[in-house]
């Protein structure tokens, strides 16, 4: 159990060391700015879409299953 838990530390530390050695590059024409309205809209939109895709299927299927159980249908058996 200890091996499985701590074996992931080595690649994460290697990745952190690799990222720590990188040089800073100034923003260019192809950079995606992380300030302003565009970034805010993309970020909020992504969070809303992922949240909706996570919770809406369960909210939509719950009443359907309840209807089948209430009417005594043999669909779920």
Summarize this structure as a short list of keywords or feature phrases:
mainly alpha; 77 residues
Short recap of the structure:
The protein is built from 3 helices and no strands.
What does this structure look like?
The chain is flat. The chain has 77 residues and is mostly helical. The chain has 3 helices and no strands.
What is the topological layout?
Blueprint: H1 2-6, H2 9-21, H3 37-71
Main sheet specs: none
How far is the N terminus from the C terminus? 39 Å
SSE-based structural type: mainly alpha
* Helicity level: 55-70%
Mean pLDDT: 88
Give the tally of β-strands. Answer: 0
Query: Low-confidence spans: pLDDT under 50, at least 5 residues?
Result: none
Radius of gyration: 24 Å
Q: DSSP helix count?
A: 3
The best one-word shape is flat
Hey, roughly how much beta strand do the residues contain?
Answer: under 5%
| H/E series | HHH
